[in-house]
Amino acid sequence: MKIALPLIRGYVLFVGLSFLGGQLFFGYFEWSASVGGLCGVLAAVFTGGFATRTRLARIITIGLCVVALVAVGFNAYQYYAHYNTPGNYYAWFMIGPYCAGLALLIGYLIGQDSAHDAA
């Protein structure tokens, strides 16, 4: 996990920033995309140091990951409900690994919590 964690954090950070930057590029604003991107960015940053300090910090970071996953789900719903055109897709080639990365960060943080409880 020592090699995979920085890669996962980097990808989550990149896609989270893409959620935020994409709104500026395309000139639209959606709450779900903003929340999904911001929570993903914060989760990626916090997993580096903040989340390893205390149990509360790990719980906060897990909460950020969960909120990001829910926001991405809601954003996908909005996308397909409002932009229903032939050939339309939601860039799942980027969003799928983003969701997987958030889930892996949750697993890592739960594992850290278990390791601290056992010690």
Summarize this entry quickly.
This protein is mostly helical.
Task: Please explain how this structure is put together.
With 119 residues, this protein is mainly α. It has one domain (4-37, 47-102, 109-118). 81% of the residues lie in helices and 0% in strands. Helix 3 (55-82) runs antiparallel to helix 4 (92-118). It is elongated. It starts with a helix and ends with a helix. 29% of the residues are buried.
Helix count equals 4
Number of DSSP strands? 0
Estimate what percentage of residues fall within beta strands: under 5%
- Major sheet summary line: none
Low-confidence stretches: none
Secondary-structure class: mainly alpha
Order of helices and strands: HHHH
What count of structural domains? 1
Rg from alpha-carbon coordinates: 15 Å
Instruction: Please report the distance between the alpha carbons of the first and last residues.
Output: 20 Å
Residues in helices, as a percent range:
over 70%
Mean pLDDT: 88
Shape: elongated
